[in-house]
Amino acid sequence: MRVYISEYLKNTIRGKLITNTLKEILGKKLSEIPQNKNEWCRDYMPVKGYGGHLVLFKYSPSYIVGRTTLEKTIPEQKQICNNLGLEYTESSVILDGGAIDIFEDIGIVSDRVIFDNCSSWMNQEPSVLKDIKERLKLNKLVVVPSDPWDFTGHVDGMVRFINNNKVLINDSSTIDNAIKLCTKKEQEKYEMWKNNLHLSLKNAGLEIEVLPCAVSSNEDDSDTDATGIYLNFLLLEDKIIMPSFEQYPDYNKAAKKKLKNLYNREVLPVEAGLLAQHGGIINCVTWNF
Questions:
Q1: Cβ distance 4 to 31 under 8 Å?
Q2: How many CB atoms lie within 10 A of CB 10?
Q3: Which of 43, 63, 87, 124 is deepest in the core (most CB within 10 A)?
Q4: Hey, where are the domains in the chain?
């Protein structure tokens, strides 16, 4: 097992502490990805399919393309993989690594992949989903609605596999209360998304567990702050590296306890408040293979 981070991460104020802490935890098992200016390496690195093979999808996210400054952060994916000596196959499908979660031969993907690759749904399974399933050798691919308050459209802060029939999502209790103070339109949007998420997972035969979540309000309609989301953890064979937030000590303890019980692994909290303010947390800045 090896964990990778972008070498650029340590050069940012928000990433310096994360880098140092990961080095303390992982030691020689941690490597840096050189020659890029994008710390969110989960998204541009290959996706590991069923059986362990790697598929390199096209990193061309809608939230970056068309924005000149951000487009400069799109790295040369093939050059990076080749420099690291990785063996992979390529796909022309646009898909961020954080927009899919896989357990054995089952995957969960955000519907953002549909909008990024297809002009219409056409009342049938788009070919893009077939391509993802075949290349990753998946038996089932579950499509869930992307969080309307998350500009990335990713799933790694929304739903994660526990095993092949059970998933983990955020406890929505605090948001349920806070959303009552928002406009009727915002309330309706929230309820529709929440109901569709649960329905998508249940229709796929997946049981649902909830993880404590300290996010309490969308009153500023912010889509760039992931503070309080513990679901964006790094899952390894023998441990979980979990984001923690100094302003939420009780939530930190509750999330750590729940993860330990569900995954039967050591859970190591890492302060991630500064990083979360930019829309991503631990899973986003790591890639493991």
A1: yes
A2: 17
A3: 43
A4: 3-288
**Radius of gyration of the chain from its Cα atoms, rounded to whole angstroms:** 18
> Whose CA is closest to 9, among 39, 34, 30, 45?
39
Q: What are phi and psi of 143, to 5 degrees?
A: -100, 125
DSSP string, 11-28: GSHHHHHHHHHHHHHHGG
Q: Using CA atoms, how far apart are residues 52 and 48, in angstroms rounded to an integer?
A: 6
Residue type, 275: L
pLDDT value for 240? 98
Q: What is the mean pLDDT of residues 190-195?
A: 96
Angstrom distance (rounded) from CA 32 to CA 132: 28
For the cut 90, the answer to whether the pLDDT of residue 99 exceeds it is yes
The rounded distance, in Å, linking the Cα atoms of 48 and 41 is: 14
Give me the residues paired with residue 239 across strands.
266
Tokens at 195, concatenated: 């109901």
Single out the residue of 212, 224, 223, 227 nearest to residue 276, CA to CA.
227
Tokens of 45: 């690195």
Q: What is the enclosing helix (H) or strand (E) of 56?
A: strand 54-58
What is the phi/psi pair of residue 158, to 5°?
A: -125, -40
Q: In whole angstroms, what separates CA 227 from the centre of its chain?
A: 14
Which parts of the chain fold into alpha helices (H)? 13-26, 41-44, 68-71, 77-83, 112-117, 127-136, 173-178, 184-203, 249-263, 273-276
pLDDT at position 219 over 50: no
> Strand, coil or helix: what is 80?
helix
What pLDDT is attached to residue 221? 46
Q: Residue 62: name the closest of 90, 32, 99 by CA.
A: 99
pLDDT at 32 > cutoff 80: yes
Q: How many residues does this entry show for the chain?
A: 289
C-alpha 47/C-alpha 59 separation (Å) is 11
